[in-house]
Amino acid sequence: MPSSDLIPIYHADTGTVRELKKVIRTDEEWSQILDKPVFDVARKGGTEPAFTGAFYATKIAGLYRCACCGTDLFSSVDKFDSGTGWPSFSGPVSAMNIRTRKDSGYGMERTEVLCGLCDAHLGHVFDDGPPPTGMRYCINSASLIFFPGIITIRQE
Ligand SMILES: [Zn+2]
Questions:
Q1: Cα separation, 132 vs 45, whole angstroms
Q2: CATH number of 3-148
């Protein structure tokens, strides 16, 4: 296996970095694994309607993982009520675990946020968030699975 297939991923429950093989599946395979609403958002770049997702109002402590591959993505520690109707975070558990790219769709210039391991569409990031980062990660509930009670260990 070429080393380029391995991606360092931060594990927020243990505070360790492990190199994992990039998760690559066809749409056909994903459609068999995921519920349709999750598939439509996470694999096809859709957006769930505001105030309809499972987690926009969740305040319980815990860890949010990728609905497609289980990568640790966001912590309740960084979650805030943005009033938008989507789960909003001031940052991911680690910059390692996500990637971003320009999204010029729908006549807007936005920055798309994707899972670093499986390229699931998570949402978009904006620069109007609260301190200390000033960033607002606007994420679809459908792209997340919530694990209540998992304590997030800060990286480094
Ligand atoms: Zn993923």
A1: 29
A2: 2.170.150.20
